[in-house]
Amino acid sequence: xxxxxxxxxxxxxxxxxxxxxxxxxxxxxxxxxxxxxxxxxxxxxxxxxxxxxxxxxxxxxxxxxxxxxxxxxxxxxxxxxxxxxx
Length: 86
Fold this sequence. Notes:
This protein has 86 residues and is mainly beta. The chain is built from 1 helix and 3 strands, in the order E-H-E-E. 3% of the residues are buried.
């Protein structure tokens, strides 16, 4: 399970689809996800690379959900209004 003998239920996140180690908490959507999954010690998790949504043990360390995307991307200037774009 884990290399740590003091925390046997803690396993690092690993995406089953793409193999990424980056996972984020996902928002609980349905009645089942809100009330039944916590009874089974499960939580929804989304992969940071392929965006696959999966259920993992609540002991699995993942990053907090990104609350909102940045409105201004670094490295790109503001949109210019003099461009003719369809």
